[in-house]
Amino acid sequence: MRLERRSHRPLFLVLVSPLIAIAAALAIAGILIAMAGAPVLEAYWRIGVGAFGSRLAATETLTRATPLILTGLAAAVAFRARLWNIGAEGQFYVGAITVAALGSGALSSLPGAVLIPILFAAGALAGMVLMLLPLWLRLRFSVDEVVTSLLLNFVAVLFVSLLIDGVLKDPLAFGWPQSLPVGDHALLPKLIARSRLHIGLAVAVAAAVIIHLVQSRTVFGMRSRAAGLSPAGAVFAGVPFGRTLVMVACLSGGLAGLSGAIEVMGVKGYVTTDLSPGYGYSGIIVAMLANLHPVGVIAATVFTAAMFVGADGMSRALGIPSYIADVTVALSLLTMLIALFLTQYRIRR
Amino acid sequence: MVHQHFSLAPNLTVLDNIMTGTEKLWSFKSETVTARTKLLGIVQRFGLDVDPDARLGDLSVGEQQRVEILKALYNDARILILDEPTAVLTNIEAERLFRTLKEMARQGLSLIFISHKLDEVMAAADRIVVLRGGKVAAERLVGQTSKADLAELMVGHRVTRPVRDQAAPGAVVFEVTGVTVRQGGVDRLKDVSFHLCAGETLGIIGVSGNGQTTLAHLVSGLAKPSDGGMLLFGEPVANLSVRGLIESGVGRIPEDRNKEGAIGEMSIWENTILERVWSPAFSKYGLVNRKAGMAFAERIIADFDVRGGKPASRTRLLSGGNMQKLILGRNLSDRPRILIAAQPTRGLDEGAVAAVHARILEARRQGTAVLLISEDLDEVIGLADRIQAIVNGRLSPAIAAETADPRRLGLMMAGEWRQTEGAVNAS
Predict the structure, then answer these.
(1) Could B263 and A234 be called an inter-chain contact, meaning their C-beta atoms sit closer than 8 Å?
(2) Interchain proximity B277–A223, CB inside 8 Å
(3) Which of A32, A74, A83, B70 could connect to A78 by a Cys-Cys bridge, CB 3.0–4.6 Å?
(4) Which CATH fold topology does B14-114 show?
(5) Can you name the residues that pair with B182 across neighbouring β-strands?
(6) Is the Cβ–Cβ distance between B218 and B179 less than 8 Å?
(7) A136-178 pLDDT, tens per residue?
(8) At CB < 8 Å, which residues of chain A contact B?
């Protein structure tokens, strides 16, 4: 048995395979649900209700999707150029803490229309800086950026932890380690009243569309794709390899930093060390699900966020262990990746 | 079999390296004592002294090679095949190796020694088989042959030049004087000099792996010279950049079309304009002009008879010959003043070879200076006006193609051009 690359991906397969993948994941998860003694079909129903069944559920799913779209884009643009940025989690946190530092202090008296773009830029810049370090190490000393960007996550989170227990600690938080809250002007307007859904979603969707256009229409997009697909071919064609990677790193780190900034300004208003339930790492999975396509990232994110929120709802409603929810999410991601892989390759005997 | 590149683990001792793979995976004890005795026996018998307990990484390359040979002997080899064993050795080490080989032969082992260095073959062998184009060309006993004889056999008797226009070399457009390229502490090119004239083809011949790749990279703008000077259209240039070359009208055909020449997962039109996407013809304000790219690709496909793809289809779907025609097309459609062609017909079928040759001849007729780097001797003899040989990173003086005979080319490729130097003043 061997795998053979398809010369083109049949549209029918591309549309149907995700559905088969979800069905397969649910079927496997069903075994666990049955073992936990809950009615399987009702559990499936509860996932749907939990994710989209009410106004609250739907807005919650989209709120959850917002930072994930941006970290997914961060991974997608980097991976397209074969720059392995595993550090979106750390970049998310430095973006978040930068916003908390600036938005709670001197700048907080500025009007929102000025302050919010400044904070977006500052958060993105912080993420960029954190990604440029591993890239510099790679270009200068050929250090594998997978390792360095991954390790920087822990450095970043511990640094944030230091700040929110120190200079940025909120004195009114009853001793909890959390940062000073950002001023009211820095909070993002709501997209839908009486929900947590904020305009960050619109920013994230716009970012996806813009990145799609950058990748498909610009010289930079063409060069970064060339650099990723074939470094030797790109160098031969005179693509400035190092400069292209620096730009890709800035874009990728910037998106992850922006994600952290938006999460602080849109949802919580302050930073804690559990601000992200692994958005940076989930972003990698989302990017793979989307086959590194920026607009596909939106769909992949909504699916992932729905599974997270829906499976949580299921375990709460049926009183089964929340681990089953986690397993369901993980299974659905795995089956989805397999299904997408099989749309690109066929199995031959 | 002793390969040119060793398959040894530098972090293990000599004995461990030799024993690797000789014992069953599931056995609990290791027969180290027996193995050591056997190894020391072999060491003594052939005079291949190596300390069995030394860490392999601490040994010199010559000693590591001895370990490779010992490994083969330890596995009771009776026929030993050595692939270019002297490529990594110093002269003294090589002489020592030859003595060992003679000793092994005396004791009844059969040895096959693969090399393209004539001196070594004459020194090490008893009987010589000449391979040419995958066929046995001749078989000689050492006592009954000479280096010149072997060189002639290596080249063959097929030297027939196709009829074509007389060269009328124009002005010198590119001149390289005494250039050395050092990469990773090794001189890939040493004191290389050549020049290209408009309307003339310079052919570089040589046995594979003698620095052709670095030479092609140097003139394609990918490798920087560490020493020496270059004049492009009369202007001194310290480093050639890809963009600078293309802007001044230099076309480049890379030796590896799949790796360097085209990016398989990108579309045909993208591959045609990638190296000139900075030009206002193909982009404005950082936005790629897709329409112009498509039109350019369309034109190349039509003019250069590229079959099997539309401008928007993926380049990897093209056959080797059609991909090469595409690469030729993107370089030649603008009438370049210089064309660098590295192994332009490697791996192509007859029809595609003929098409590529016709294009190169046509470019020369229109006044393009052509640098042809090729391992295919027939190709160089057929296309070039002057010929230089590359051996171990050095270039021989040029000879006029009309005066090339097999013996002379063979000696040049074997690095023996000093013997023929008296007769060389053709350039």
Answers:
(1) yes
(2) yes
(3) A83
(4) Rossmann fold (3.40.50)
(5) B187
(6) yes
(7) 999 999 899 999 999 999 999 999 999 988 888 888 878 788 8
(8) 7, 217-223, 225-226, 229-230, 232-239
